[in-house]
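[agent] plan:
  1. take the single chain provided in the ticket
  2. run structure prediction with default settings
  3. attach structure tokens to the ticket
  4. add a short note for the reviewer (M.T.)
[agent] executing step 1
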Amino acid sequence: MRSVRQALSALRKTLRAAALGLFRTLGTEIRDERTGQPVGRAFIIGWGGRVQVLGLTAAVFPVPRPQPRLTYWRQEFAFASHPLPDAAPDADLASAPISAGERTLVVVLDHRSPAQVSALLNHWCPRFAPAEDVLLAYGGPAETFPAIPWPQKVFLDDPRLRTRDHQRELQSYHAIFRQVAAWMEGRNFTHVLFMEGDHLPLVEDLTTRYLHALRAEAADVLAYELERFDHTLHPHWLNARSAGWDEGITLSMLGTGHFWRREAWDAVARSPLGSELYLELHLPTAAHRLGYRVRPVPASQRPFVHSDPRRIVRPPARAAASGAWTIHPWKAALP
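[agent] step 2 finished; step 3 output follows
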């Protein structure tokens, strides 16, 4: 019976992927009315007094188009995106030099076997970070946790981390934030870099580069794929709205590669604000609403970090030669 369910699930995924491929290949090209940039293709169908948009995942919302010539028989709407919320950066923070007292904790999340996790941590240390500055957040089986020979580690026993269908089951990293914040008590870390196990470092001065980028933006948090989702057609927002999430500013970011000032990390760890959301919405939204400045990582780094492994067009060595600091998601053997 289990094999039949697995086969049906695989068939549904195949059919869904085929349908999405059709929509995104033959559909109408949609451009962002605000920026003029293409955001994808989709089929747009009117049915039952509603408009169905099939195949589009961009965070855009419908807007009426101006009508220079008055007509009563035809009206148009287009799609636009929100600019990221921003405030004037703190000039003093932006110009402050990096001091010797600043220390970054690298949190590596993994769930694999002790041998695989050990290989990853030994890849990180000491080339990319000192061993005493790397904390393993382990989400694998409880029985294998003691066998991982790494002194700095925390075990994650949270059902909202251990999901299968991550988006629909609203996977959460809130427990990770709480446990890491508790682990840092009494330790002199000033910043936190969070990396999933398939997010690999490529430059030896990685944390220093993040510190400089944080300074340049006078930010509290740096994130990949940072977008504003509220009041858009993005499925994550629509799902959150159906569950009663309020209509304030809601941000989204990739769940890996984010860099935090410790004060912002600790504040999100303490606050339940938005914790019922999927992790990619919860983390930046909570930080923003708590008054912290959330900004995107440097544009030069965005081509190397994605949510979809099919978008990786350069292996680690070539990515590093092109100026990449990190690469994600790298599912093959360690470089």
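[agent] step 4 note for reviewer: The chain has two domains: 2-80, 91-327.
[agent] ticket updated
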